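A reminder before we start the practical. When you read a complex entry, don't treat the lines as separate problems. The point of joint prediction is that each chain is placed relative to the others, so the output describes one connected object in space. Small molecules and nucleic acid strands, if listed, are placed in the same frame. In the example below there are two entries. Take a minute to note the order of the lines before looking further.
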Amino acid sequence: MAKKIKNAIPVVIIAIVLAAAFARFDFLPSIGDPDAPAHTRTSDYYIEHAVKDTNSPNYVTAVIVDYRAFDTMLETTVMFLAGLGVVILLASRPDPKARIIKPRKFTENREHLGAPAYQSINKDVMIKIIEPLILIYAVYVLFHGEVSLGGGFQAGALIGMVYIIDTMVSPGTISLIRLPKERSVALAGAGTFIYTLTGILTLVGGGVFLEYGKLPFSMSFEEKHSTGILMVEVGVTIGVMATIITILNAIHERARFDDDK
Amino acid sequence: MSNIPVLIVLLPLSAALLCMALSLIHWRLGRDVVIASVAASLVLSVIQLKDVIDHGTVSYVFGKYKIPYGIEFRIDAISAVIIVMILIIGFITLLFSMSFEVRDGGKVKNSGAYTMLALLIVGMVGMTSTGDMFNLYVFLEITSLSGYCLIALGGSRGIVAAFRYMLVGTIAATFYLLGVGILYSQTGTLNMEDMHYMLSRGVSTEAQAVALVFIIAAFGVKMALFPFNGWQPSAYAHANAGSRPLIAGVMGKIPAYAMFRYIFCIYGSEFRFMDEFLLIVGIFSCCGIIYGSVRAMAQTDLRKMLAYSSVAQIGYITLGFATGSPVGIVGGFLHMLAHAFMKSGLFFGTGAIRQKYGSMKMEDLGYIYKKMPLTSGLMVVAALSMVGIPPLGGFFSKWYIGMGAAGSHHLVYLFVLVISSLLNAVYFFKLFEKMFMARDKELPDRIPSEVAQEVPWNMVLAIVVCFLAIILIGVFNVPIVNVLMPTVMEVGS
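Here is the predicted structure of the whole assembly.
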């Protein structure tokens, strides 16, 4: 009983603090208030100058991959880092000497771990109809991302999904592309590096980092911005796709931990 | 505008991204590229430090947009010094971890660990140099994620410790984001300089206070300030052996610097509840100093003892900030530098002992000064510096913190400083007793003598660099303070 009370104390304290905060503080601006500083200090500038500065008719794209492109580069790095972390921790066994418990006879079932079998999915429909459609949609989302909704992250997720479907419907047999974990994680890094490379090219062209107007290609200013945004989106697409495949590989090859049954 | 600030981040980042692909060609290529890139960054950071000392603060805006609209890197004297520190320790840690490669874990695990280390360095350098609040969050994410993975690479106990750290650390990151969100809703800007301008023009004090509570809690968790330190001892103790010096030595200092920026650069003395917040930070620091020292006395595992001592040492840094006087703040930064080298040095020493004799227990250290003279020399110097013996770095940093505390009439801080130095002496003299007096345990030597007399060259390099740094920070404390002081006078109250 005493333990229950002890466990409840933090919850009660948090509830009281949150209730007090909600009751007392009303400093947040109301939704859509045109005079709030949150909606005037920088937003106005973005709305007025985005099209002229970045040659992108979509404000969101302009902010994400042009004004704040450096943040997006690091976010893509975070994606790569997450995939690498999953594959390191799940798909490689810890050192035997660093273990708390000595491994018991886990090995007899291990061969079956890497081969998931979903025999009920119709191969013909999935491979012939659904996968090409998803791929076309992914390419559309990638190239259309600059002008409307979409972009690299979504396209990468769609292509990764095609790979997942492909491994699910044809287990064990040879499919078109197989990316083992070493290759897929290397591809994820390389994809993210395309983004960094865009920045390095702008440095080579004599600008500051990610100043697309200084890309060393013979194009007009607007074309350079479009090319820069497209390169960045392609890099993000490859990075995200390979990260998803990496995580799938890691789950397939998952090492058994000591507390597994 | 020179590109040095971005190149310092960019070189290790590119190397880390390409490391996995390069290691497909040859398993050593990725590692070598990462080490070379960090060495190049180190050279550039020294050039940048000289530039900042000569010409003042450097500002680098990405994409050449106007300041509140683009992302800015802003490097003043303090951050330039801290970047040099991160890169020195990062470089020697990368070399040091060559001795801890696990070849049986496969290629991915091996070169993945180097990628993680490089990204940890990138994250910390970025957090130090950025002048944008959301950019700081992204770098914080990179730092934390690579930190989680490196801790989890330390075997089964490491995985448990990393999971605990991840739960707490994710909540901390959310707190930081909430704090930034509240500030953004009041000002509409994310640039730190611009935020300071907007806040000084009059923003609801309640909003500022709530945001600062969130931000101090977030950075408190990340640097293991006293009430938020639950994750820290096991995480530091069970992290991957090769990267432990970097994690334990530097990872906690960067959030402390970020907290300094928030309290003094962004909020500044115009904030109405400044003294109250500084008092709260001071109370946390005092409790942390006493608690960490007392817990460290009770440990038998060397790594755990050093980890608990870190709780206390982080307390000194924040205590320096809490005095609110320029001298105290400079003392905090000097302690940040000195402690980074001391704690990394102690972990380099324990790593070398573990590599040679395979033990981390204090009882097994008997007679070690005869068997490993270099390593024990470093550990003695680092431990004496922790206690605060005059010509070493730790003494001068504590001296400045004490002067700051006396100057702002916080005599309790002074008292805590003296008491905790005595407590430090208790547990470090216990270490000395084991090293010099205890009987030889006759442990088998695991490094064959044809490879190296004591330890391999990469470990010797790490040990010598730390040894020299501790002594040099002590001897040349006045030039370092002279570099830091103008910036602190500018922002401090």
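Discuss with your neighbour: Chain B has 20 helices and two strands. What might explain this?
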